[in-house]
Every structure is written in C-alpha cells, then in structure tokens.
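Please review this one:
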Amino acid sequence: MAGVAAAFGLLASPARIRIMWILSQGESDVTGLAGRVGVALPAVSQHLAKLKLAGLVASRPEGRRQVYYVDDPDIAATIGAMITLLAARAGESSLRRRLDRKSA
C-alpha cells in the first residue's frame, strides 16, 4: 500500500498529471510540454525529473534535445480512465443542475 500511496502522491500535482496525459498522446520535448502545460520551462523540467525517477517517463536524445515519452503505459491508461470518469461525472452533474432548474 505504501507504493500505491507514493504513486498517488507523485501524481497529486495537476502539472504532473497534465504532463503524463500529454505524453500519453505522444512524445514531446521540454519546450513543447511547457507550452502545452502552461508552466515555466524550469518547473516542467523538475516535474519530468521526478516522473523519470519514478519510472513513469523516460527520455531519449534527439539531436541536441531530449524527447520524453511515457514509460509506464498502465499508469497513463489509469490517468486517462480517471479523466474520462470525472469528465462524465461533471457532465452528469451539469445535466442534473439544468434539469433541477427546469423542474423548479
């Protein structure tokens, strides 16, 4: 259970979840990630270092830059499932609020 808690703790950062989500869609370098995540480049680098140490992402050199990719597809799939679930619930909640207003 400690390992599970540690993994959830690592992913408790919205920026790290977003990085994992973006990388699950395809590879990217730090500059591309910073633009898509909306976080400063040094912060993205720090997040990537933590994700890399945890074995969730890996990198490979491509010319003078490092390209990052998901190294644990199961975690990426879990994040995707959670995003889908929460989005569906948010939509359901929004629908319920609209229906409640109409019936009032």
In short: The chain has five helices and three strands. The beta strands are 28-29, 57-62, 65-70.
